[in-house]
Each structure stands twice: as C-alpha cells, then as structure tokens.
Structure prediction request, 442 residues.
Amino acid sequence: MKIVPSIDLLGGNVVRLVKGNIEDKIIYSSDPISIAKKWEEQGADLLHIVDLDSALRTGNSNISLISNVINSLHIPVQIGGGIRSVDSIKHMLDMGVSKVVVGTMAFKEPNSLKRIAKTLSSKIVISIDQLNGMIMVDGWREASGFDILHGINMFMNMGLNEFLFTSIDRDGTLTGPDVESLSVASNIKDINIIASGGISSILDIIKIRNTGCSSVILGRAIYEGRFNVVQAKALA
Amino acid sequence: MLRIALFDYGAGNLYSLKAALERNTGVQTSIISKMKNLRDYDGLILPGVGNFDPAIISIGEDKELFTTAVKDRIPILGICLGMEMLFNRSEEGKLDGLAILDGEVIMLNRKLTKIPHMGWNTLKIERNGGKLLDGISNGSWVYFVHSYRISPSDKRMITANSEYGITIPASIEKENLYGTQFHPEKSGQTGAIIIRNFLNICREKQ
Prediction:
C-alpha cells in the first residue's frame, strides 16, 4: 500500500479543514515546500496536493507554488481540488503533475471526461467524496446524484479504475477510517482505492491495508505527530 | 400522450432513465419530488440510484399518498433500490421499507461472490416472464449494479432470476407493481423492450 501525505493549500499555507469547512481550518505551516520535502525524506511514495483555493473558489491562485513543489521533489505529485475542465487537467499534466484528481467536473460533465479517459486513464483519479452513501461534489456542498456504486460503475465503464475515496463525515476528525465503506469499494473487481479521511493512529494504517486499498492519504494525523510517514511505511 | 412520473429521492441523476423513456414516442416524463397528484400520471417509476434510508426519508410523509397510488392501480416500476424499497426492510438501512410487498432485502453473500454484482448477467425467465418481460427470451443479457437482493415471501411474484453465486430474483410482477434488480435503462436492446413493455402497461391503464 502506498503512503501518500497530503498538503492542503489555502492562501499559500498548509492547512487542514475539518469536514471541509473553511471556517474550521487549522494552519500547520506557511512553507509548503519544506513540508513536502520532509514527507519525501520520510519515505512517502507520492505527494497529494489539494488546492483548496481553487476548490472553494477563494480567488487566490496556488499554481506557481504547486509548480515549485513539483520541481523540488523526486517523488510523483498528484493534485486535486477545483479541476473543472479538460484543459485544466491537461495544464496540470503539462506542469509535471503525475495524476490529476477530478471530482465535480467528472460528475457534471462525464462526457468531456469520457473523451480523454482512454488516452489518459492512468493519469486520472476520480474523487468519491461520500456522505451517507451518496457522492457529493462542488466542495462537498452539493449532491452529485450518484450513490457510491453507481458513480464508480459509470467511470469504470470509461476505463478509469482509480478512485480517491473520502468519507466526508470523517475527514479531519481523527475519528478513525470508514473501514466498512472502504471494504465495499475496494472489493470491486479491478479497482484501486486511495483511502482518505479519519486516520488517527498507526493502527488505522493496518485497518486500511486489510480492506485492500491501494494507497492511503495522511493528513491531520502526521501533522499533529500522532505517527510519522516512516512508521506508516513500515506497516503498509 | 403518456405521462410518466419519475420520483427523485433528492439525489437527481435521472437523466439516463429519462432519456431511455423518452426514446419512445408519445411519452412525457416528469421528475417529481413529492408523491402529490399521482392521479395525474399514467405510471410511476422509482429509480435505482441512491441509498435505502435516505430514499425512505425522502418519501417520508408522502408514504400514504404512495400507498393510495398503489391501491389506485397506477402501474409502478421499481428499479434496483426502487424495487428494494417496496419490501418490509433492508439490510442496507435501519428504517422500515415501504412495506407494500412482503419480504426483505438481504446483502449478497460475500463468501460466495464478489460484492457488488456489477456488470452484465443473463436472465432465467420464470412463469413466462409476465407482462414486463413480454418478448424477452431466456438467457437475455441485462446490466446489474447492486450489493443487495430481494427475498419476497411470495416467490410467485418472481418473473426472472439471475445466478451470481446464489439465485438473485431479477424481476418481479404483482398486480400493478413491477420491479427489476437490474437497470433496464443500461441494458441495451433488452432493456429498451422492458421499458417499452412498462409503457404499454401504463397505456392499457390510461
């Protein structure tokens, strides 16, 4: 299982939101590059960057900062948050991003995604942000109209098989991962699930590994020193 | 003009179903979020996307209006979750089902098969398939996306089964109630015939 630390960017700072709420933010650092390097040195397989400014349309841009982070690292970088067009996906890939996580746009314009899915299938990750079994979009503020299964099914039929799975009511809460939902999702044939949300202790890494997920995203738990990437790697 | 109501559990995404219905001429579909004025429609469809408890909650106080529509003999088609909701209870949720049909909804057996059951499977027609499966031959392929199966108390309502480790009731028919575990709107030509059959049933009642 891959260990994937997350850098959530808001106004140039590394932050964590609790349950996606902008008023409920914790600022961890104003130096994303040194944080990224720290996770790389600890053995991270991949870095996950969330551009919250873009996702929440604050008006700030983190693009040059993201480009600097990519150029400072040797591990691949995956980016998500506010990717709302095919052009934007291509722009990110041109910048040197390894994988692009698409949420809202994937559900609102599945046909646009379908057109590029064949050629870029290994570079696109679909974000499944679920609340009570339904997939939410637009910064978690709106229902997509898909439940987990039917949403995943639509994209797998396009040839996309990697999904970033977040249980919204767990995210940033340190209350433990949603093992039940993760097991259901990662049990689907030929799927790769990246687990995210609720991880609080090193034991959660084992729990997630046992569900069959291919990667796990670490946020608040490593920023608050509950465990570090080295320890997570040892158990993954 | 045939008027068909599609019930929206609050989640939306009924476009593929709406499109599949409107491929037939003389059909007007309305997406409704309340069960009011069901007498204005010739048929009602409970779509197959959603989760048990939230869907039951979305019907909420309209449950009696729905029961009245059932008694009024309005043809009703439940797809996947829409069919599961007609029963007493489901292992997917804690809330009571609509309890129009006797029986329960059980999770597919993890030990026997991969869950969910996602993809094409064949139909084994029972009891001539009834009106809904009229013209559908044994072994026709239909598309499933589900983790639960129904277990009706009265097995005579089952008009087709599919095999997925265990026998899954694939479609049911009882008086004016019709249900499919698979998605006719994703099931190609076979699905198109099933949708056309339902519309014909609604037309007879018009």
